[in-house]
Amino acid sequence: MRTPLFAPATLASLALVTLTVVGQAHAQDKVLNLYSARHYPTDEVMYDTFTRTTGIKINRVDADDAGIVARLKAEGAASPADVVLLVDAARMASADAQGLFQPIQSAKLNAAIPSHLRAAAGPSGVTWTGFSTRARVIVFDPLRVKIEDVATYEQLADPKLKGLLCTRSGSHPYNMSLFATVVERLGDEKGEAWLKGMVANMARAPKGGDTDQIKAVASGECGVALTNTYYAARLFKSTKAEDKAVVDKVRIVFPNQGTQGTHVNIAGAAVAKYAKNRDHAVAFMEYLASPFAQDYFANGNNEYPAAIGVQVDNAALKAMGGHHFKADTIPLAVVAKNLTKVQQMLDRVGYK
Ligand code: FE
Hints:
By secondary structure, the protein is of the alpha/beta class. It has helices spanning 10-22, 24-29, 43-54, 65-75, 89-97, 107-112, 173-186, 188-201, 210-219, 229-237, 241-249, 278-288, 291-299, 315-320, 333-349; strands at 31-36, 57-62, 83-87, 101-102, 129-140, 165-166, 224-228, 251-253, 264-272, 304-305. It has 15 helices and ten strands. Strands 1, 2, 3, 4, 5, 6, 7, 8, 9 and 10 form a ten-stranded mixed sheet that branches. Strand 1, helix 3 (43-54) and strand 2 (57-62) form a beta-alpha-beta unit. Helix 7 (173-186) crosses helix 8 and helix 8 packs across helix 15 (333-349).
């Protein structure tokens, strides 16, 4: 399963760390300032291994996505941030539009990460890159909803589901990203009609997070809802009786398997606009695409690895089904392009 931590390279790496600590001037140079909206216990091993193998010490600032963006804006050109880790393409795109990232060119990243999981390439390279993926799936109550009526995202607007649909806020990045890709496919007119149809099907006004939607389906308040896979996986791997009871009552569908595939989003990283340690930042991004780091980055939050050819053995994801689902490969860069338009549509159709 996991790569052994004590690989033969360890001794050489330790020697490198010792040298760095002894030479104080050099120690100051070998630093990476990471602003992270991801905090999982397994991340520590991933960071420690980077430091051991490169001699680059990681200083971490942990905050939520909004907190990190606010901090970067407040710090401006004086910001010590080198790498920024955020969750969801909509958040990446929004921070990018606010000028908080800089483009980089990396042949390693281009080879390792599929192009649809990163920002559109500009003349100076690419800003944000995805390092893990999560699918946005449909969860439903099999006693109230037929599986063939929830096989696609488009069907969520079908009047058959009237009074059954629950979602978190339409403006939440997870929904904005999904809606941006569906609107891109359907076109503006049909896309807006789809959003309007979902509003007409709501069992209640949008509220809560993804886990709340799953629990509301289990309790009977809702018949169908949307969730990111890792929230469902957490419930599937939980040993608590109340979580097992929830899992027993719901079913998961990976939508659009017969067409474009299920929408997947990313947790990703970008080099900060005013990075002082740019080379270290690029080295860290390339490290995140390595099979070793991918295992920790993806598994730590029950996500799928983003790098081509990397497989992760995750029992919770397998238990949930769809381990080999067909994922939509529409470039997530369309999210960046459609964000403003989709928010205007949500306002018009009254999707709170
Ligand atoms: Fe989340």
